[in-house]
Amino acid sequence: MSREFNLSVRSEPFWLQEAFTCMNYVPMLDSEEWLNKSDGWSRRQKEEFLFPYRSYRGSMRTRLQPIMAQFSLLAGYVDSAPREQESSKSSEPPMMLFLVEIQHVLEAEELPPEEELETELNLAFQRMLESSLPDSQKISEGGLSDVMAALEGWQGSDADKFKMLRLYSERREVMDQLWSFQGFCTEIGRECLESVQERFDACMEELKKPETAERLLERVGIQGGEKFSGQITPVILPYNRCRIELRTLQENPWHFKTKFHIGIETFYLQRSEEEAFCQDEGLLARLKALSDLTRLKILHQLAEHPCYLQEMAKALGLTPATVLHHVSVLMAERLIEIQVTTEKKKVYYRIKKQGLEEVSQGILQLAMTREEREEQRKRQIQEGQQDQGGIQWIIQK
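^ thats the sequence. predicted structure below, dont judge the formating
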């Protein structure tokens, strides 16, 4: 089935989101682990690569810190220290999740009336906690008890759960401060963009190509649906993050409302990253993903037929949030992919055979000499079979 794309490209980032990212601890800029990792790039090359982003983040922080001090409520949601290890089970800090869900409200000409705003806020939290909510449950007006119940099964740290609960309790006051704060973020962001202007412009040129959206969808295995409409937002930090949100329209199940948040290095990393998954570093990452019994059970289940999240959770006797964590690990290593269908408006997961075949090839390469491995890699590149990594994908239904 052919697909139609009617996607607009924003001319600049969502500056409020950029501001919070810059104020947060950013592993790619602050952690020594990646700098010291042996992955084909020397430490010096990585330092040079990161220099514009560190300059951009440093300028943003310097300008924003005295202003954020005037918004004490918002300052409480800045994650300036490394996040707890278990927080990796949830995709992002609560405030970052909230900003993505409420972006359309914050970018309107004015805040909606009180009743409409409350509805939008409840819908935002419902989507943030969707993996932990029963299919029939919705967050009602004043539904603090609904949020508390969902947080019991939400896959995040205790600190994140507390912040999520606090964020819901303070949602009206937070929205008022975000509304006032975003004007400063926009002005400062536009001035600080100069640090990464060349890379930003290169990304924008790529985003304007008609085939870009379809290539992004195909890269994560999304199929189905006739019409995709929505918006593409460029993201400076994190520069390698790709978030794709799909919403099926009630009145037309073949029409998907789509939001892309695309890190500005996405296309550069796809083209230039030298390490293939069948090399030792990539093979080790995939073997780690396969070393968990629950994830192997998921693969066995998906080998029989594609499944949606609740279906897998029921079959495995686990919570949807737990299954979502394991599915995210497998997707990050491209061992499974998703397929969007109109049947009950669900997102189905399925085996990605190419990924598993690459694991098999990687194991077989252990018996090859270095020259034989290099020759095989060159053949794969020439034949267009090499699948490059490095991009962080987040897919939400």
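The chain has 19 helices and eight strands.
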